[in-house]
Amino acid sequence: SQTIHQWPATLVQPVGSPLSLECTVEGTSNPNLYWYRQAAGRGLQLLFYSVGIGQISSEVPQNLSASRPQDRQFILSSKKLLLSDSGFYLCAWTGIAGGRETQYFGPGTRLLVL
Amino acid sequence: GENVEQHPSTLSVQEGDSAVIKCTYSDSASNYFPWYKQELGKRPQLIIDIRSNVGEKKDQRIAVTLNKTAKHFSLHITETQPEDSAVYFCAASSGYALNFGKGTSLLVTP
Asked: Which of the residues A102, A109, A110, A112 would you substitute to probe the B interface, choosing the one with the greatest number of B C-beta atoms within 10 Å?
């Protein structure tokens, strides 16, 4: 079966520090991968998505970037964190359920920027 | 791009009553409409979805209806239970990405 992993689970970082969040998927090949951010008590904001290695689409211009160095690995990065980067970061992938594609979320990373 | 509006933002019902959450979308090309449930501190979990070739889908106490002409879809939960309390998100998609509504916080009181 397919599983999706994210780490770290929680992270506290000072303003201006770099960031690297990792997401990996097991049990599938060439998945579509996504990064979302959820601010406290708010909705889900799509940040990036990728349909293949090295292919990244950015939905919201900001100080974050994403990379997909391997088929099942998706990384979210920042060179300098802002206070507003705090939130719950969710990786997601598109898989097959009932014979059709649907989207599943990873466990998430809680980021607090101080 | 796609714009998904979700109402209400909060909903409180008594156990056993029904709950209805409504969403509208703007992109007529959207053809996939999932609903997610997010419990406090956890990831969103897919609870039901519908595609544009059907008008209604039911799974036990949960049902979703879709009106493509009016560009709106709804989640119906019958015989609500306290464990149904969570934030519910609707979404719409015509391609790779899902566009989410802002969520509805549902509280089911015993």
From this structure: A102
